[in-house]
Amino acid sequence: MAAWVFSFMLFSAGLSGLPGRAHAQTIQCVTPQQKVACQAALDQAEAELKQAQDQLSAAQSQSASLANDIAVLGAKIKVATADIKAKNLLIQSLGNDIADKESHINDLEDHIGRGKETLADLLRKTNELGQYSLPEVLLSQTSVSGFFNDIDAFQSVQQGLGQVFGELQADASSTAAEKDALTARQNAEMDARYEIQLQQKSIQADQTQQKQLLSISKGNEKAYSAVVADRQARAAQIRSALFALSGAQAIQFGDAVSFANTVYQKTGVQPAFLLAILKQETNIGSNVGTCYLTNVNDGSGLNVKTNTYTPNVMKPSRDVQPFLSITSALGLEYKNMPVSCPQSIGYGGGMGPAQFIPSTWVLSDLNGRIQQALGISAMPNPWKPLDAFMAAGIYLSDLGADSASYSAQRNAACKYYSGRACGYVSGATAYGNSVISLAYTSYNSIQSQIDELQ
Q1: How many domains, in total, are found in the chain?
Q2: Which residue among 25, 70, 73, 406 is least crowded, i.e. fewest CB within 10 A of its CB?
Q3: 3-state DSSP call for residue 202?
Q4: Same domain (yes/no): 166, 281
Q5: What is the CB neighbour count within 10 angstroms for residue 170?
Q6: Given this model, what pLDDT does residue 301 score?
Q7: 216 exposed, middle or buried (CB, 10 Å; 0-12, 13-18, 19+)?
Q8: Are residues 281 and 351 in the same domain?
Q9: Residue 9 pLDDT more than 80?
Q10: Is the separation of the CB atoms in 52 and 79 below 8 Å?
Q11: Would you place residue 245 in the very low, low, confident or very high pLDDT band (cuts 50, 70, 90)?
Q12: Please, what sign has the CA dihedral across residues 254, 257, 263, 264?
């Protein structure tokens, strides 16, 4: 195996700009002793990260002041820098492991290919030997020993068949396991690279804010008070901003965050990710939430935005009866409840903030899980924001979004859109990328707005 060079970057945390390369350190990770040294370097980096996080927690626990704000920002920069260092070390170790896995999978697939050729040859020989009856074999032999030699040959071929079958099954099982392990390592590498990008942006923002505070004279409390007041005004603006939700009355962003935090406590789905999903669902089509079912026989209805007859508001065989059951149980008039209008293809029928179609909302255990999570006995209402938020959180958690990793959340978003992970259904990957961007990386992302509310 070719020697693998373990390289990583050590980043400086000065105030002059983004973290840059301080120096490069190269460690060989080929022999068992060298691999131990590589692991020790990663352990040390993670210990430095833990120490920086403790220092940040200590700084944040102090009362608000100009000096402490500067200290908190410095501690945050130190945490981000330590995390970048640890993630780079992790990426290098994962890269080596990924190469090993890919090589092993190739070897297994080659072995399976050779095994299939052997199997085909043995099957041909078995067929040739099996075409003769016992009298024909006896008559064709000039001696008893020849007869028994043919019997032994036939039995040997059959034994060979069983052995090759067993090897192929074992190789196939090993290949599947290795591919699963490879996917997990590739996802971990993707997550680490994504976290580095986020930390670099965080450092840039914190350094900018730190420069602003350092430019204020420590004795000028009036200027510092103006900075604090500006932050408070910005937080109040964000909190009061309307969070437009399809099929439901707009709510204040602060309330939406509160609902999302409740969901997070029960499901583990990150608030910013959940809100991004709901925001994305709102923007899928221009007519979302403006259709009403009027004909229960063919699923057609009225688009109140254009005041026009609209076919395919709901799929009759799938969603009409569940929709009638939901509205009846909630004491609502089905003709007055807004649902999503159909797009260029397919059907509409999505209800409320989370855009659940009726047949999905009435899944046997979803309503019970919503009731248990919220501690309610009444039937959940898909048009009620908190109920809809919890339903989306439960569903996304089942899709793997209870993990905070980039790859898990992105795949969960793709599954929410298409039923499959990213890369399989047209449009799903773009949807997943858009959700992640809206949640974490876009200008004025949902996460950044949540942070300003803290």
Answers
A1: 2
A2: 25
A3: helix
A4: no
A5: 14
A6: 95
A7: middle
A8: yes
A9: no
A10: yes
A11: low
A12: negative
Domain boundary among 163, 198, 214: 214
15 assigned to some structural domain: yes
Q: List 333's β-bridge partners, or say none.
A: none
How many angstroms separate the CA atoms of 289 and 344, rounded? Answer: 15
The number of beta carbons lying within 10 Å of the beta carbon of residue 6 is: 21
Quote the pLDDT of residue 320: 97
> Does 204 share its domain with 250?
no
Clarify whether residues 55 and 99 are in a common domain: yes
Q: In whole angstroms, give the CA distance from residue 323 to residue 29.
A: 61
Element (H, E) at 5: strand 5-11
CATH code of the domain covering residue 201: 1.20.1260
**Which residue is listed with tokens 């000065």?**
14
Domain presence at residue 220: no
pTM of the model: 0.60
Residue from 378, 318, 313 nearest 347 by CA: 313
The whole domain housing 133 covers 5-214
Residue 425 scores a pLDDT above 60:
yes
Gap between the Cα atoms of 135 and 306, Å rounded: 87
Q: How many CB atoms lie within 10 A of CB 384?
A: 16
Domain boundary (197, 214, 231) is at: 214
Q: Do 254 and 347 fall within a single domain?
A: yes
* Mean pLDDT, the chain, whole residue set: 75
Token code pair at residue 155: 């039995």
DSSP percent split of the chain into helix, strand, coil, nearest 5: 65, 5, 25
- Give the list of residues 6+ apart from residue 200 with CB closer than 8 angstroms, or none: 18, 19, 80, 84
> Does some domain include residue 233?
no
- pLDDT score, position 284: 38
Structure-token pair, residue 204 = 């840039």
Gap between the Cα atoms of 17 and 19, Å rounded: 7
Question: What local confidence, expressed as pLDDT, does residue 403 receive?
Answer: 83
DSSP notation for 417-454: HHSS-TTSSTTHHHHHHHHHIIIIISTT-HHHHHHHH-
